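Lab notebook, bench 4. The sequencing result for the construct came back, and we need a structural model before the next group meeting so we can plan mutations. Quick request posted to the team channel:

Model the 3D structure of this chain.
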Amino acid sequence: MQKRIVVTGGAGFIGSNLVAALNARGMDNILIVDHLADSEKWKNLVGLRYEDYLDREKFLAAIQRNTLPAIETAFHFGACTSTTETNADYLMRNNFEYSRSLCEWALNNDVRFIIASSAASYGDGQTGYSDDDSHTAKLYPLNMYGYSKHLFDLWALRNGLYNKFAGLKFFNVYGPGEDHKGDMSSVVLKAFHQIVNSGEVSLFKSHNPEYSDGEQLRDFIYVKDAVAVALFLFDRREVCGLFNCGTGAARTWLDLVHAVFRAMDRKPKIQFVDIPDGIRAKYQYFTKAEMTKLRSAGFLEPFMSIEDGVLHYVQNYLQRTARKAE
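Done. Here's the predicted structure in token form:
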């Protein structure tokens, strides 16, 4: 019998795109693990091919009882991804303790383990965006979400485990399948709906004198490129370590929303609003992934520019979905 592939967070944004990519390879020996509750994530499962679904707590219980069928690879992309979540106990249980349990199970059972980390661990970026192991301990995340992901990375490095599995520090990922994320969805999705509804996009003002309004910089990566990196690690079991998953290019919020206006064939109309007090001190003004480590590991595929990625997202997904809803 063919061994299964586990995708935790398989109904989520990156996870569902990963399952679709595996399906495109003719693979459906997939166990999806998630926690749907009353969210709209279930819609991401429609059209996907997979053998089974388990709630995350039932999956953990099956691991502890050793009742799972043979597993070849486990993509652990399930986590609380809200950068504004304030329940530290919840984040510790969900993002650190759960991840540690899955990692230990995978390593003890010769399961290829690939986990989602986050660029939020870099904090304000004052120490740079190197994914070199010697640099990781110097990071200072600005929010509890970033710290919960960073804590797992520190645990794995301290115990010498990142030479046995792979982790990906995702930067600003955008693309189809993020509709359920609400306030955590990308500015591309938010901008599209704002343009449809009012013809205007709201962006945060800069409260840092080094940056003009809208000139804050981010490393934006299209979800299909992020999935391509995950599949590279799936195909190369020997490649281990903690890797950045961005494009290596920093672009402004203005670049991003202008790309949305252009994809929709609309004239740009932008207003700037204050960053809410609750997140102002934790706001990142610049992110840019250093990609040397991943490139040196053998991933040589080009990344889409935001112009190309946004155009593909808007015209092939967002506009089609909007027409169906009319």
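DSSP finds eleven helices and 13 strands in the chain.
Will bring this to the meeting.
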